[in-house]
Amino acid sequence: MRVRELERALGVDLFDRTHRNARLTPKGRELMDYASRILDLSTELEHRVGAPEAVSGTVRFGVAEVVTMTWLPRLITRIAERFPNVRLEIEEALTAELMASLHQAELELVLAPGHTRTPGVSTLSLGTVDFQWMASPTLGLDQHTYSPHELAEYPIIGMKQSSFHYTALEDWFLTEHVRCRYLARCKSVAVAASMSMAGMGVSYLPVRSYEQEIAQKKLAIVQVTNPLKPVEFIAACPTGQTYSLARAVAELACEVSDFVRTGALTR
Question: Domain residues for 71?
Fold first, then answer.
């Protein structure tokens, strides 16, 4: 149905044509909302009711390294089982870089550290991950509880400014009005961990990813005063669509994630 035919059928003007460029009227904007909801319902119907092989397309999503190191392979397997004709394009990067790509429509989904009330995105909680300061046992830092001022005396192997933790760790040191001495700022958690295992300094690492190294005494947890809370991870999609293929993948990520659950936090 053409626009003017639709206007006659509804008995309202959908566009204001008194200007050089036609503009949506209030009724036109209202119609767009209904049209968007109809498209979302159509997509959801196809994904939830239709045969899995009938769903096709490409999902571009980004992941944080901790997701890659843990349950990403299981998610890819689950997607292949549920939607065999869906193709994946996966990018690994630091959180700020991933969220920038999401806002620029270069990605449709991000699985990374974040907050369920992040402005401008629709989110699902994937659970929390405990991070702790760690160092090689050869440094002998596991025999004492360190304040920010005391820990700042040791070389810190940090992450780049676009990482989720950068600001939180800077603020932790500033609670005692000190700045840490960075030996290096890495883009990779694995690189920071390897440098710490080599006895080069102290880094802030996800405990579950390095339980084996801790058991083998390659790493030791460094106890500190006022430790930071576990980090929440989220599946983030752009707002504006209540359902999409990316949202379906986000829901599968929630099913697969084995991060610690603190409750059903969704928005």
Answer: 52-127+232-256
